[in-house]
Model the fold of this input.
Amino acid sequence: MADDGVAICIVTWHSAGDLPGCFEAIAALAHRPLEVIVVDNDSDDRSVELARAFDAVPTTVVAWPQNRGFAAGMNEAFRRTVAPWLLTLNADARPAPDYLDRLLPHLRAGAAVATGRLVRPATEDGVVRLDACGMRLLSAWRHLDRGSGEIDQGQYAQAERVFGATGAASLFARRALADVSTGDAFFDEDFHSFREDAELCFRLQSRDWDVVYEPTARCEHRRTVLPERRATLPAAVNYHSLKNRYLLRLYHQTASNLLRTLIPTSMRDVLALGWVMTRERTSLPAYTWLWRHRRRLWARRRWLAERRTTSVNPWFERDALPLRVAPSGDSS
Done:
């Protein structure tokens, strides 16, 4: 692929209802060259058929006989391309035609990741709510999408550095991913699904890479997994969500941020354990999984600690920081 090629990486699982709109948006993207890699996690609908029929840009389809999760699917998609720029895109996301053109200048200026202004589909009365304007980090080790659920009134109007970016529609520089990864496993496959994007951003921040939010890059995203809907989510979703919140801490908590976040984090741990014991016992195996794999997980922690060049501590409770390098030029 050309030096400026973008590979759009999509992991599907029962996504047939979303794929036509997603492919229509991809075909309308102004940037070229493009390629699409779809990895399907054993869908029992028409996801694979629809992906194989898409021919607006060169497309590779990988159909797995089992659900190996979002992280593994994305890693497989990344392996199938040599493009320097990689867009992770959910099937329920609809990037605007200039989405890539708005994000690419930040990566050319040295950022690791650029993400746009994600909005939810308009309601029947025309109200548009924000979905994600980058990611922020709380002292309780929660990572939240900035602006999630707020009515879009033009807030978050500045391009700026943020802690993280959602995997729903973010553009990554391959050189940055290679710097923070082991081999070609860019996302940590132990996460399976959920929080894997935040964990990758922890690694990038600890190596002093920038994650940039660009408000002029717009993308519609019909998000269905939200914290307030936890009680109605499938058991497997909640299991991975619980397991992964501890994985984040195991990998990235240090002595300094342990002291800084001890009280809010401990309170959250108590509440989480109480919820699981009384309302969500299907998630209890998360604790046994962590214990069973403790030696391998601690080895991963040691590797991350050896690679760390800067602290993520300034990001706790901080919304954003100014850009270090202003993008220049046009990506078209």
About this structure: The chain has a mean pLDDT of 93. Residues 255-278 form the longest helix (24 residues). Residues 27 and 55 are 9 Å apart (CA to CA).
